[in-house]
Amino acid sequence: MSLSICGQNGELPETQIAIVVSRYNESITGKLSVAAEQTLLDAGFTPESITVAHVPGAWELPLITAHFLRQPKFGAVIALGAVIRGETTHDEHINRAVSLALMNLGLETGKPVAFGLLTCNTVEQAIHRSGGNVGNKGVESADAILEVLRLQPKLPA
Question: Which positions does UniProt annotate for (2S)-2-hydroxy-3-oxobutyl phosphate binding (predicted)?
Fold first, then answer.
């Protein structure tokens, strides 16, 4: 017999959550951050249990994410940023390095890390993903964290 485990409902652990948000492309990332924080508040987290840290750009997301993940009181981190393609391949290098670093941090610490880094070809695409006609990836990132936090205690030892 198979066992099906779901984290879409259930109790949330008492923990703190950090939101690490890039200031680069702040007109985009600010909307992601506000939406992620509101999603956590709507789920029952208190303002005191949410820490928002601003970093210069996407490149700095993993370092500060690691800082929070290594503190016992933080149970998860939502990493938010927006890298928009330019005239060179710079965006590809940033996106690859940051995404791999964030994934490795989650695996290393056993704590969930939400990947809320927009990797868009145009500013218009980023606008659509930060509250436009494609939704808000800040909400999606916070929802993913909430689901994993609910799921983890249900997993078999």
Answer: 87-88, 129
* 59 annotated ligand-binding residue: yes
| Residue 83 marked in a binding site | yes
Q: pLDDT digit string (tens) for 75-116?
A: 999 999 999 887 877 778 888 999 999 999 999 999 999 999
Query: What does the alpha-carbon distance between residue 126 and residue 145 come to, in Å, rounded to a whole number?
Result: 21
Paired with 136 in beta bridges are: 130
Question: Which position among 67, 90, 93, 128 bears the catalytic label?
Answer: 90
Domains assigned to the chain = 21-150 (3.40.50.960)
β-strands 113-120, 135-136: how paired? Answer: unpaired
List pLDDT tens digits, range 22-59.
Answer: 999 999 999 999 999 999 999 999 999 999 999 999 99
Q: Is 90 a catalytic residue?
A: yes
